[in-house]
Amino acid sequence: MDWRDLSIDGYNRIFELLDPALQGMSQTELNQQPKPDCNSLGWTVWHLARGQDAQIADLAGTEQLWIKDGWHDKFNLPPDPEDTGFGDSIEQVRAFKSPSASVLEYCRAVVAASNRYLKTVNASELNRELDESYQPRPTVGVRIVSIMADALVHAGEAAYIRELIKGSGWLGY
Question: Which residues form the DinB-like domain (predicted)?
Fold first, then answer.
């Protein structure tokens, strides 16, 4: 198996958790915080997609789908390329209103763009060091894995938040 195929498979696994986690959830439930200081399900999935969109677009040298495809309008948010939810206060999380199914549609579009990008990366690009302050400097390959790991963690969080809201025993792996 080629590393690209392996990576694409890893990114697609996000939906093994998100699809059932979001199935049948109302807009009210997407915005519900399990506790006053917790992230909502809708915010968590939005943050997963925003982080991945911003980072993959940066690696690919393309415009974020958030802006290019007008996703910000569907979420009634400004087209700020820096707004990924990272560092949001609990007040910002509470103010976030998920536009129902759009949160999953945006995530699907982001994963599709990620997969298109992954198909273009060659070994030279994979080993390219990023111009960042981290030491040692991460490579494109390290960042690709980091983005995938972050997305899968947030997808797991989303599944757990659903369980806290619905309490339906859905997570019975």
Answer: 16-147
